[in-house]
User: What shape does this take?
Amino acid sequence: MVTIFHNPNCATSRNTLALIQNSGVEPEIVLYLEVPPSKEKLKKLINDMAVPVRDVLREKGTPYTELDLVNPKWSDEDLLGFMVAHPILINRPIVVTRLGTKLCRPSELVLDILANPQSGAFSKEDGEPVINAKGVRV
Assistant: This one.
């Protein structure tokens, strides 16, 4: 089972989803902007990634600046609360597989946690090759 916390308006998220599908897997797609994870679920995802909460905050195109989230006064619990209240603050895509949980920026990081090999050539939306015709990472 593979789950992707996905934003279909994000090219990185679309590329990550396509790489998952190129491995022959149809993942569970969580449209986290429509159905945000609970604070507990978000905390578990971040713990499973073994990264600081701040590493999962997205700045571009979000209320990050308006909320003064750069300010070190905010605790991890505070930041999690902001992300639940404003899911656009959650950086994406986050992918969960049996091999691990990872923030897949850039999209090819998903290859590190996919159990199945790639089934064929793959290039990102911008044309950058990621997988060659033999299914091998470029």
The longest strand covers residues 94-97. The chain has a mean pLDDT of 97. The domain at 3-131 is CATH 3.40.30.10 (Glutaredoxin).
